[in-house]
Amino acid sequence: MQFIQIQDVTKAYANHLALDKVSLSVPKQTIYGLLGPNGAGKTSLIRIINQITAPDSGEIFIDGEKLQPKHIAQIGYLPEERGLYKKMKVGEQALYLAQLKGVDKIIAEKRLKVWFERFEIMSWWNRKVEELSKGMQQKIQFVVTVIHEPRLLIFDEPFSGFDPINVNILKEEILRLRQEGATIIFSTHNMSSVEELCDTIALINNGNKILEGSVKEIKQQYRTNTYEVHLTSVATALGDSLPNGFHLLSKLVTGYNEVTATIQCDPYVKANDLLGFLMDFGQIVSYRELLPNVHDIFIQQIESQTDKN
Amino acid sequence: MNKTLLILKREYLTRVKKPSFIIMTFLGPLLMALLMVVPIFLATISDSGLKKVAVLDETEWFKSKFENDENYIYSYVNDDLDSLKSMVLKGDYNTLLYIPKPELNIPVNAILFNAKQASISLKSSIRNTIKTEVENRKLLSSGIDPEVIKSSKTNINIQTIKLEDDGKESKSYTEVDVALGLITSILIYFFIFMFGALVMRGVIEEKTSRIIEVMVSSVKPFQLMMGKITGIALVGLTQFLLWVLLTLGLYSVFALLFGPEAVSQLPAGTNMIGQNIGAAQISGNAQVTEIFEVINSIDFGVIIFSFLIYFIGGYLLYAALFAAIGSAVDNEADTQQFMLPVSIPLILGIVLSNFIVNNPDGNIAFWLSMLPLTSPVIMMVRIPFGVPYWEIALSMSLLVAGFVFTTWLAAKIYRTGILMYGKKVNYKELWKWIRYQ
Fold first, then answer.
1. Strand B111-114 to strand B95-99: parallel, antiparallel, or no bridges (unpaired)?
2. Which of A183, A218, A298, B44 would be A3's cystine partner, CB 3.0–4.6 Å?
3. Which of residues 63-82 of A touch B (CB under 8 A)?
4. Per-residue pLDDT for B55 more than 50?
5. Does A222 touch chain B (CB under 8 A)?
6. Into how many domains does chain B fold?
């Protein structure tokens, strides 16, 4: 079930094409990572989903309905550049922003109290935003983003500016929000958080979608058939005598008769054959496939794109 | 609740609750009142009680020239200077006026000896008496009778009567019209600049604090802009209204405390409506009553109504432009290049208003009062002189059309500008934004 359908969205600015017929689909109740280098078109796309700007062509559907102004109340957006009214009091400001999203004042106040209790920031209610540290302001901003209980959440670099402890709190909250039914679009450069949190990712560059799919599938798709083995009690030297189809990429002799090696298989051979072959050499301690991480795929894809141009 | 209304409410409340607003609102009229009250208060204090002035007149020209009044009693003495000085110190006299014999043709000198500081009013009254006497003596020595000079001084009083279409004749007083026109137009000018700048700063603040992206993900940029402009307009109206009320309040408290005579002595121009300006320029009771007669005949209904329309209309027209400027820049320092062309029509209006009062029905006056960028200032200058209703109606309609146009234009710049950072914006760029779909 797709929650967001983006179909052939194009957006051109005066002298460059920010989005060129981009189509994406975000499954319901998942965390969707939107990846891409700076200037790829992520912010343009996010702004279009938020109806801050309109696309030149293409359509967007949210839960089967064409995107329209009423959906603003169902979207929560945490921009990369955070901002609050500095001179305004925390509670007053959160109430104001919640009301702008269409939440009734009394309900907003109740929900805010729950969130403030949860983050243990109740004592900030009557303090001015400018009196708070940057990390504190980020917490407020996060609360303000989710206060209207949106069905779609868009986080642009949500972890920048947080210390590791607060990053963990935030991750838990994001996972909990998904649990409660929200669909989350997550735009970031931080690849480790992508692998940890995202169910699906899309990679865009220069206004084009390069790949899209679940993290698992993509990793499979970009597997290089490389294995890492760890052997002890090695009798003969490993390397010169590998059968056809297997290539030794690296070998590390650690200690007495102990070897860690990475071996790549050609697509037509079975990985299990390698295992059988290795048994003759010594004791196999560990054996695992080296799947590419998202970071590598990201860099590889962007570089191959740049080469093409 | 409507989102524009929510924004309006916030813009209004945060500004009205600011200490600077409260201080300005209450301090303004208080300072004004102090300005009016203190001189009179001081005067009443220093003039309390009779003061004795000893006159030692060596010239013997001023015998019985100094006349006693409610404050000063003059007594002519003939003792020597030093003993008189000690009498002043002892308190037998408050002041000793010593007029030494003039040497040859050196002008007459006078010296005032006081135990305390001599009052200004005493000094000036003595100066006048001596001056008149010396002048009369000079005239006599040239063979001219001072009475002839006195009788040749003439007051010319020209009455102006305005002929109305319906055959009615009404007295008019150009000075009153000038004062009314200039004061109302200057008020509008200041209001537009003060609160227009507030709109601009508000937009820049939202941009630099980066709250703007959160805001426009909840509301349309146009709603945000209009909420801000109308909210600040209400702040301005609130401040203006409070000023008027407080000034009137203080004025009446003052009148109760010091009596109505004191009020009529108030320095010219401190009265909000400016009725006293004309009065100050003319002395003589007959003319003052005449002015009040004229003031009563002025159509304040039309003036107040048009003042409000031009006050609000002019503000809305310019505030939209100021909002657009604020959205196009990253900080206040960059506003200069755009501020200039926006301010020129207003400044031109104020500069030309001195010229307009001399020829309120001329061609230039007519066209400038039709052009929406200048009409709020120029039309207010013209209205006290009487402007045909159709002209006022046309000018107001053009003003409305003007502010609809600038708002439309500003909204286009605004919605692009608020999300644009780090770009040096020029007019070509602005033009591009206007043409974006």
1. antiparallel
2. A183
3. 69, 72, 75, 77, 79, 81-82
4. yes
5. no
6. 2
